């Protein structure tokens, strides 16, 4: 990697991290706009990617519109209940399925069922996690930030450990560069980050998150495991389609899916554990 490429990659990554951290900490309209745009663009990118396959013509614009509507509704309410989120998202995805099916009746494409499947899968794969991010933020913005930080720490430690010590391939057919040594290194880094967050929160004066050290370790472990699976799944999609990057919106990094693949898989278990810990700690869900 030459210096110019490294500078472009660093600048692009810095802008991305700044937007994520800024949107989370500022919250409110800033979070809704930035994360809403991320959801819309990621869904559009996903459908553009999958449409590279022969005879697949999913609906990127329809998917992007659905993403905007779902995220806007979920993020509108402060501290929405699990029941509200669950019922709304199930009904919303069902409605998207019906509308998409009706559209396919008039498109006369070779594989209408596959088109519907890919379009709706984009809502489940991308929009559902973004909606759960809004739920986590509504409880405590620092918790959502912690999810991203743990993902970034895991990626960094896994990369460094794998580069230095990696010998045993984790999944050679899907992602040849990933190793079991890198996975272990990521886990160790994740535990360190989780304990550091616990220590910082234990002595914080404002917005204290009442999670124990064990709960933070469990949350970090779940994020690491599912984040790694998300990374592998996105690699599987790219390998199936036959591309190196999911897009080119981020110079030096590729597409949004290349940056968000881990967090998309990690958000659901993180949200479930957060709700469980709140229940165990006698908080209202």
Characterization of the model:
The longest helix is centred in the C-terminal third of the chain and has 29 residues, at 213-241. It is built from nine helices and two strands; from the N terminus they run ααααααββααα. It starts with a helix and ends in a 5-residue tail after the last helix. A hairpin with a 3-residue loop joins strand 1 (169-171) and strand 2. The chain has a two-stranded antiparallel ribbon with strand order 1-2. Helix content is 77%, strand content 3%. Helix 3 runs parallel beside helix 5 (112-139), helix 4 runs antiparallel to helix 5 (112-139) and helix 8 (213-241) packs antiparallel against helix 9 (256-280). With 285 residues, it is mostly helical. It has helices at residues 3-26, 28-50, 60-76, 82-107, 112-139, 141-165, 180-202, 213-241, 256-280; strands at 169-171, 175-179. It has one domain (3-280).
